[in-house]
Amino acid sequence: MLEIVEWLKGMEIRARDFYLGASRAYMEDGPFAKLLDALGQDEALHVRYMEKAEQVLRENRGKVESAITVDPETRARIEKPFLDLVSRLSLGKPSKEEVMASVLATEFSEWNDIFLYVIQTLTPLNRELQLGASQIDVHRDRLKRIAQDLPDGRDLLARLDGLPALWTRKLLVVDANPAVAGLVRALYKGEARVDGAETGKEALAKIRSEHYDVIVIDLDMPRMNVMAFFKEATVDDPALERRFLFLSGLLSREQKLFLDQRKLPFVQKPGGIDTLCKAVAGVIREASAA
Fold it and tell me: Which of 58, 104, 106, 251 could hold 82 in an S-S bridge, CB 3.0 to 4.6 Å?
């Protein structure tokens, strides 16, 4: 499998460099350039995941067997549309429609399937690769935005919608009242897995063993300094800071300063269900964009 991962990493590096270069070439079209840049950032993350996959395979040498190989003919077929597009961009600027069509042709090739196969195979061995799985669905959403602008985009959108989600969103609700987690679980039934924790110790154990897309926590937890808990939970994983959503009644001066200094999202209790759901979506969006 290591040979497959090394090839995939090379493809992701090419894709990253192409998208970032194309975003500069189409700078006069602001929204399109921004979308290409976002795709480039996605691919930069994919490179990191393949580097992590290489590390996992070396640490588990002989323990992971691949059910497939990627033969030279398959590699050439997957690489051709992308390499053709890179060549055309170097000779001049293809139309926006040509770029979008070529991007989708490449992204819909076996390249994406093989990438997903590697991630799904190695995710049980490494927590960081769980984050990679969650980000791939974000990448698919960006591709949907491209498909919407194409004349035959409806068929492409149908294909994207027909793909199974690689990642089930996971939310952790930290509240002394288990009914709060029960309510959130009901709100996201069929959309996300919702775990609950009634103490800081329980929450910390879950955070260190699972990747959560959002951690919803009550700032006023009894017998618990939530601000100290936040610092302990994020000390080894600073990126986790972007996935916290705080709930509280009236904020103390200390709590307000804590949230303001770190620009952390906050929903005042009692809050509307729609307000809470929008806040959760905002955390997912901001964490994915970072």
Answer: 106
